[in-house]
Amino acid sequence: MTIWSTMRRAIAMASRSLIRQPARATLGVLGVAAVGALLLDMLLLSEGLIVSMRDLLARTGYDVRVTATEDLPRNGPRLHDVQTTLATIAALPAVRSALAVRFVDAEVNLAPDMTIDVSLEGVTGQAPHPWTVLRGRDIRDAGEVVVNDSIVTASGVAPGAELMLQADCGAGTEALPQSRLRVVGVADFPFELTNEHTIGTTLETATAACGAEGPLQASVILVTSAGDPDAAVKAIRTARPDLGAATNEQVLGRIQETGFTYFRQISSVLTTITLSFALLLIAVLLTVSVNQRLGEIAALRALGFSRGRVVADVLCESALIVGSGGLLSLPTGAVLAAFLDRILKNMPGIPSELHFFVFQPSALELHIALLAATAVLAALYPMHIVARLPIAATLRDQVAE
Amino acid sequence: MTDTIIEAQSISRVFQMPAGPVTAVRDVSLYVRSGDYIGLRGPSGCGKSTLLHILGCVDTPTSGTLLFDGRDVAVLPDAARSLLRLRQIGFIFQRFFLLPMLTAWENVELPQSEAGIGKAERDRRTRELLDYVGLGARADHRPAQLSGGEMQRVAIARALANRPRLLLADEPTGELDEATGEQIAMLLDRVNADGTALVVATHDATLAGRARRELTMRDGHVERETSR
Amino acid sequence: MTFGSFESFEPFGSFVRSRCPLLLVAIVLTARTADAQSSALPPVAISRHLAEARHLSVGSTIRLSTDRAGTDVRDFRIVGIYEPTPNPARLGTPDLEVRFHLPDLLDLTRDPATLPGTEPISGLNVALTDPADAGAFARDVNARLPGINARPASEATGTAGPFLVLRRFHLAIAAVTIGAATVFLLALTIMLVDERRETVGVLRLIGLPARRILVQVFLEGLMVAAAGAVFGLVLSLASERLINRFFQWRYDTALIFVRITPDVALTCGAIAVPLGAVATVMASWALLRRNALRLARR
Prior knowledge:
By secondary structure, chain B is of the alpha/beta class. Chain B has two domains: about 1-90 and about 165-230, P-loop containing nucleotide triphosphate hydrolases (Rossmann fold, 3-Layer(aba) Sandwich); about 100-165, no CATH class. Chain B has helices spanning about 50-55, 80-85, 105-115, 120-130, 150-160, 180-195, 205-210, and strands spanning about 5-15, 20-35, 35-40, 65-70, 70, 90, 165-170, 195-200, 215-220, 220-225. In chain B, the strands form two sheets. Chain B has a six-stranded mixed β-sheet, sandwiched between helices. In chain B, strands 2-1-4-5 form a four-stranded antiparallel β-sheet, covered by helices on one side. In chain B, helix 3 packs parallel to helix 5 (about 150-160). Chain B starts with a strand and ends with a strand. Chain C has helices spanning about 50-55, 100-110, 135-145, 160-195, 195-205, 210-250, 260-290, 290-295; strands at about 1-5, 25-30, 45, 60-65, 75-80, 100, 150. Chain C is elongated. Chain C is an alpha+beta fold. In chain C, a hairpin with an 8-residue loop joins strand 4 (about 60-65) and strand 5. In chain C, the strands form two sheets. Chain C has a five-stranded mixed β-sheet with strand order 2-4-5-3-6. Chain C folds into two domains: about 1-155, no CATH class; about 160-295, no CATH class.
């Protein structure tokens, strides 16, 4: 008698046992489905932000970021003397192209007494701009801007229209003069926040809006390496040891240490709690079920069923409940993930294209492995009951009852 | 295989209870040969069920020796004892213990499947057994749809599934009315007449009286043995 | 309450616009032990994390500058070490903070082109004699001082504040967990009620009406559910301490991660107890609908 044939018979028996009590079997499966969905979502959350952010960073085409300090872009002071710095970096053999970007907060007057807050990105350099033109054309000269769809919706502007912009550069208490800008295109900005109004222009235009004179300043220099981002970082640090340079992975690492860490921790905590919960409940379900069938099990043992066989029945019952519930947990988890993602994306400062829950095959594999382990662990105690069942005493007790 | 199926030599069974040890079987020796029909009779608590469980290798004696086909059962591992019960011994219980989620057919088929018998042979044997016990037309009914007597007949068919040499019945008519009990008793007669050794534990004097050897038990030991 | 701009929760650093007009970069260059001259230096207080990272103590002298090159260095005397207010936005990042008297900070960070006395600040915190007046006070100030944004501190985070978002997130998780627990609870109560089917069948056969049995079952379910809720509360209080201790150790922070308030405890009890009682009644109701004779027969 092979193990496979024993398991096959055990599975058949276990499924009949479950079908015999359809209400409790259904509820058990539904419970596992709900818990499994939560488990899957927590596994997606643990790496989802990193995966999404990595994808977002990679999509821009830049794999190195240079700042004035080791702080993340926009957290530290600005880079001074940008043109010289840009030329130095772009000339490095390990660098293919570089683009300086300055971020400025501003207001746009749509109508008398109606202004909207906007984020201005001023760029300079030979590299592609960090936005994708959807309609119209890209900027060429100073005074030209591209806007995102959010501004188009709010103001109705189209390529060819003009905007009056007043920057808030944090320089002092004096109000800066308004700048008249011409819209030449509508673009998509990968890191724009949900409902954020974003404008892309030249660095010169952004600097002029801030009323600044003298050498240009930038918040960050975006670099595309010649193929090896680590080599590019090393070359930049050698040429300019006063600057901070980081590859996308290093930037991700810093982000992970700060803001993302909360979600990794909460996903670990909730994964542990969910698994413990599932383990406890399935174990109780199985134990109560076994205790209600002790007479039958003792009779089967008396008829010649081996200890291993009746233990296999219990294990297969657990596997069927968890397996069925686990399958159902996949679509349930997907729906729940979409719902939870929508909630979390309301967090301030989240790029609209960043997601908290991202499907990864490794998360699915881990989900399956954890559920399988739960099925086995939950069945351990009821298996122990069945394995150690005193046949004669049980038969006597059943008659006495 | 020898003529003597089971030989019990001075077996005792003591249960350790919180109030103190209880001796359920006290120094009992007996043998069961092929074709024997033995009745174990006695009042409730005299140890007949315990003795039956020991003979059926479901329980182990505290002292003494139990030989099955000349082999000491005590030295057999649990898996070997299970195989013995599956192929050589059939059990009938007072409470039937049919699996409620299986039909009569499936209940009878179950031990054969466990013994590794092929599908064609299983189907043939199951049909034969259900006809033998008069329930050929109720094969697709579940236990909940059968009467007490019908359930016991299915249990008998199940016990005979793997052609055991020995059939052990523990109060087979305990839950049945007199008329139904008589039907079961007649069926057991037939089983024995067809060559299966039979040991029946019962407090029913009428049922015990059908046996060719009747052992009367009291307080764990065999008080009297009558042969017919 | 707070005036002016207010630094919002910045989980993603570069992707949130800081609205502070002043961005301070203070770099500790050297630390010197206290001497007679240091007592004349301007006093500062530093965070515990900074003290531990740089092995500083009360009485030490530190040199601070606003840029990495160390221009315009000033010496300060450490007069105190404090536990920084935990900031969830900076979880995992050591709080390397220095606190100054405002004139000293302005002296250190003033742009040479700026006239003393005209420097911008981030905001003003005001403590009112009667906090209940915060809303009216804010409106009055906004009316009298255009260009100033005054609001009660309780409204500072705004409706889309990160903590409100997290609250919604946790509520959603809790709802799913309660749903799963309810399903399992129902399964268990069905099994447990089924164990008593004979008893119920006999009671029905001897004449007890179904309603009488349901009332008894309801009361039993209520007691079991109440006991379970109390046990769950005790378990959660123990877990609260363990979780807070672990994460406070893990992140070297005084932040409270889990807090079970009376409201939370009452809400959980208000959900758990009726759920347990209702689940028992539902399971029993399904049983009582069956024929009493079938129930009594095994």
